[in-house]
């Protein structure tokens, strides 16, 4: 008797398991979304993916920032151990992988779902397109040109909250007096470089930014405007001294606590504010372009799908690509992360004033290309090294400017 | 047992040769083959994927004009010399102290060797906490009443190399101690008796008699420590990530960052070729010296 019932049990298990194993796949998704707000956003995406499809999401979070995670991802893909899907930023980061035929062609999914009609700005889809074929699914829009301020820190120092870079400089002595760090700046290369890019677009303006990075114009590179920006950059180094910060979210945390006055960081910082229960306008302020020129770069994240030999995985990859561009995922993911959705047809009445400001800038077309679109990883890495060295030493603004020009000019 | 004709040299002692074959093959293909491949590609302008598009010495010219590489080399030289000398000195001193027939020797030996059981990643994290100004050493000393005390090497570009050294030596000195202790125990008891009869003080015996007798032990330690110095990477990543700024960068990290992070294989290969050249510059004279000496004996 017992034998039969055991056999029945096994048969029952086998029957219930069969449809699952025939169709569903475990899709490993690698990304570097590890801070509180980011992790909350990725959980939303995983939840929707598992609800809408029969596949399961295997989370492959890689701690550290993109510069830590990207090498691991690239070496896995070119080493023949591809993951199911992986995050990259919009731009040239994955272009060579696409050229080498290591990425899944998503053109059918894109055409079936009308990506070209819904994605706004359409340049994001162009960034995914190579020789007329689509190779990635844009997920969100991030802009790095933001200055975040802690209103309570300014109140404690008894000065008006700064809304521009100039006002922050003016308030710095009073802030120092009150024991508040004027500028919270993580000392990692990508963060120090982010500040420099923000100053170039915020102080110099969109045209100047394009002249420097896209056209690599000799005159702009040697102009007084750029020299002046490097002088301001040296002032930023003074405002940040004594901070001893490394990770960006530790720096954002200083703003949340009110022990530092301002941080120049991308809008992903909003995820941290939201997680800490802070409200835009009453707890923290946001100023595009450091309160100068309101232009933003429409960078962000896209999901790439490495070519895989397993048909079930390929199936799951297409399903995920479809989910990423669905309205539900766009709203849930971007609300948690503080980023802007890539679809132009989504109602965002409920977003806060910072996101609203970002959307308005986007609508007005005040956009610049991200650094990934105009510079190779090689040059970007060198600029990051230069800015990290600058913040960790007493390198003069003149020398930093000269070396910056050299790096930009040696590109191509 | 009778053999026809003279023995063929290649087949002499064949089981040993067969057993060594996989390792010989690995050495030829992996070590020599891949090194040659890397050297060849260091003369190309390969970006993310290797390409045979030769550009001569351009990658090397760029490498040696990059401040970060210069800082890396400087750091490795400072770290290397200090780590080698201090690890040997501390290791020998601790071994001599342990050799004094003290009580609980097993316990001390375990404590001293224990850091070696930790990976460099763990070591880095441990020292990050020890040196953190808000929780670690500085906080404790200030808590004892010295409120002006300031010691924050992790955020001071001039002192950060000390933090690396402290962590590296803390991790590596234990192994040196144990090897040296074994060496000391291997010294014939009669040597000690003779020196005592002659009335030579113990420290002089150690310095002038025992130390020269331990040359092979020192050679082993030097090789082990040097290998650890050249490949220094994980400790830096865990402890400082090359910072503050670029003050604690090392060559191995440059290679990794350029090959994968900055997607410039050519530049990374040029840097790794320089590292290979540095290792060969140390090993070849050493090997020649050893071979020359063997022939004379």
Automatic annotation (TrEMBL), chain A:
User: Where does it localize?
Assistant: Periplasm
SUPFAM superfamilies xref list? Periplasmic binding protein-like II
Keyword list (alphabetical) reads:
Signal, Transport
Q: Which residues form the signal peptide?
A: 1-24
Q: Does the keyword Magnesium apply?
A: no
Q: Name one Pfam family in it.
A: SBP_bac_8
Q: What does this protein do?
A: Part of a binding-protein-dependent transport system for a sugar.
Family assignment from sequence similarity: Belongs to the bacterial solute-binding protein 1 family.
Protein's name in the database? Probable sugar-binding periplasmic protein
**Which source organism?**
Paracoccus acridae
């Amino acid at each position: 008797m017992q034998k039969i019932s055991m056999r029945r049990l096994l048969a029952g298990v086998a029957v219930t398991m069969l449809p699952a194993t025939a169709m569903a796949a475990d899709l490993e998704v690698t990304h570097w979304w590890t801070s509180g707000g980011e992790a909350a956003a990725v959980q939303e995406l995983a939840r929707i993916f598992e609800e809408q499809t029969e596949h399961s999401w295997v989370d492959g979070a890689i701690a550290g920032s993109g510069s830590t995670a990207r090498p691991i991802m690239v070496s896995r893909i070119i080493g023949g151990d591809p993951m199911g899907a992986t995050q990259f930023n919009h731009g040239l980061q994955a272009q060579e992988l696409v050229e080498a035929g290591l990425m899944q062609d998503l053109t059918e999914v894109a055409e079936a779902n009308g990506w070209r009609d819904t994605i706004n700005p359409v340049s994001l889809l162009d960034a995914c397109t190579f020789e007329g074929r689509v190779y990635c699914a844009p997920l969100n829009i991030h802009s790095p040109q933001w200055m975040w301020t802690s209103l309570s820190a300014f109140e404690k120092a008894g000065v008006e909250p700064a809304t521009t870079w100039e006002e922050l400089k003016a308030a710095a002595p009073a802030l120092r007096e009150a024991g508040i760090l004027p500028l919270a700046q993580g000392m990692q290369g990508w963060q120090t470089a982010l500040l420099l890019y923000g100053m170039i677009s915020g102080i110099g303006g969109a045209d100047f930014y394009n002249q420097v990075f896209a056209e690599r114009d000799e005159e702009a590179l040697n102009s007084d405007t750029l020299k002046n920006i490097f002088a301001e950059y040296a002032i930023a180094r003074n405002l940040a001294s004594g901070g001893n910060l490394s990770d960006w979210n530790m720096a954002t945390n200083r703003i949340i606590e009110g022990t530092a006055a301002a941080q120049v960081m991308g809008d992903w910082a909003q995820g941290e504010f939201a997680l800490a229960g802070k409200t835009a306008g009453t707890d923290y302020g946001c100023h595009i372009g450091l309160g100068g020129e309101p232009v933003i770069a429409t960078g962000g994240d896209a999901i790439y799908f490495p070519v895989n030999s397993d048909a079930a995985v390929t199936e799951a990859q297409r399903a995920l690509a479809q989910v990423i561009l669905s309205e539900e995922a766009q709203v849930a993911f971007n609300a948690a992360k503080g980023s802007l959705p890539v679809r132009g047809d989504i109602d965002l009445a409920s977003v806060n004033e910072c996101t609203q400001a970002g959307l308005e800038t986007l609508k007005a077309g005040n956009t610049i290309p991200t650094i990934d679109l105009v510079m190779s990883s090689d040059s970007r890495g060198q600029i990051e090294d230069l800015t990290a060295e600058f913040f960790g030493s007493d390198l003069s603004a003149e020398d930093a400017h000269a070396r910056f020009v050299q790096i930009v000019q040696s590109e191509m | 047992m009778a053999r026809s004709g003279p023995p063929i040299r290649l087949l002499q002692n064949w089981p040993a040769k067969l057993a060594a074959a996989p390792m010989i093959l690995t050495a030829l293909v992996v070590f020599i083959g891949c090194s040659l491949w890397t050297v060849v590609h260091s003369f190309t302008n390969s970006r993310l994927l290797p390409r045979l598009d030769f550009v001569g010495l351009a990658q090397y010219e760029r490498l040696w004009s990059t401040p970060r590489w210069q800082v890396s080399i400087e750091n490795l030289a400072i770290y290397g010399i200090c780590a080698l000398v201090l690890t040997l000195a501390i290791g020998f001193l601790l071994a001599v102290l342990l050799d004094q027939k003290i009580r609980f020797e097993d316990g001390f030996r375990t404590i001293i060797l224990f850091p070696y059981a930790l990976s460099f990643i763990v070591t880095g994290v441990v020292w990050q906490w020890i040196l953190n100004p808000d929780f670690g050493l500085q906080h404790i000393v200030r808590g004892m009443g010295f409120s002006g005390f300031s010691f924050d090497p992790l955020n001071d570009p001039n002192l950060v190399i000390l933090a690396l050294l402290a962590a590296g030596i803390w991790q590596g000195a234990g192994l040196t101690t144990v090897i040296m202790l074994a060496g000391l125990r291997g010294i014939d008891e009669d040597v000690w008796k003779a020196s005592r009869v002659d009335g030579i003080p113990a420290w002089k015996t150690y310095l002038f008699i025992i130390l020269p007798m331990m040359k092979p032990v020192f050679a082993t330690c030097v090789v082990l420590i040097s290998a650890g110095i050249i490949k220094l990477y994980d400790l830096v990543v865990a402890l400082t990530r090359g910072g503050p700024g670029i003050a604690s960068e090392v060559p191995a990290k440059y290679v990794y960052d350029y090959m994968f992070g900055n997607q410039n294989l050519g530049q990374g290969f040029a840097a790794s070729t320089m590292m290979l050249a540095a290792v060969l510059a140390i090993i070849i004279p050493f090997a020649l010296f050893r071979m020359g000496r063997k022939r004379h004996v």
